[in-house]
């Protein structure tokens, strides 16, 4: 057992992610890097149509780091989070998506068929804890999954990255997701590492796409069209760098 307490055992998310904690998500380069990598992996598993902007939902969007990646990929998005401090940081950062305060355990307040897909990074495990006497984790999970299922367009997918506490928690989440209509399974990245292991629920398996020079050049050109600052192309662009030890 780790001596570090899990955040969801410390306080409810709207309390844990206060102003001080929220600032870390805009100032800590390591957090930004990890969040971006997980967002990239989640979008990869969504298997969205190539070259086609989609309308996506980011559940537990926080300060908008995942949304930044969605915008870079040319997608439109809506983010929902229970922490006003995190959303304030997102507003200060002038993210491109629309932001909404909400408790995902109550319901997803969107019309049926609104979104082309959904991602959620490090948020779903919070629903497995009862922060109030009236909270029932199974009921809150089912409410979340059933209303999310309704808000997705036909054939679209949802990918949830989470840090499960134990196998019982995974079973609880999977059971309620299937009750709500979702199908699919779980992908475990870094299964042999207790520190780096991450679980992702999705409804189909996908292979990792190699990010070659053409992909990088296309991404840079897309960012230029969006008016973003992009480094000039050189002979070193997209060249594989030697690892640093």
UniProtKB/TrEMBL annotation:
The keyword Cytoplasm applies. Keywords: Cytoplasm, Methyltransferase, Nucleus, S-adenosyl-L-methionine, Transferase. Residues 208-245 are annotated as: Disordered. Residues 57-130 form the Methyltransferase type domain. GO terms for cellular component: cytoplasm; nucleolus. GO terms for biological process: rRNA (guanine-N7)-methylation. Pfam families: Methyltransf_11 (PF08241), WBS_methylT (PF12589). S-adenosyl-L-methionine-dependent methyltransferase that specifically methylates the N(7) position of a guanine in 18S rRNA. Requires the methyltransferase adapter protein TRM112 for full rRNA methyltransferase activity. Involved in the pre-rRNA processing steps leading to small-subunit rRNA production independently of its RNA-modifying catalytic activity. Important for biogenesis end export of the 40S ribosomal subunit independent on its methyltransferase activity. Locus-specific steroid receptor coactivator. This is 18S rRNA (guanine-N(7))-methyltransferase. It comes from Neogobius melanostomus. The lineage of its organism: Eukaryota, Metazoa, Chordata, Craniata, Vertebrata.
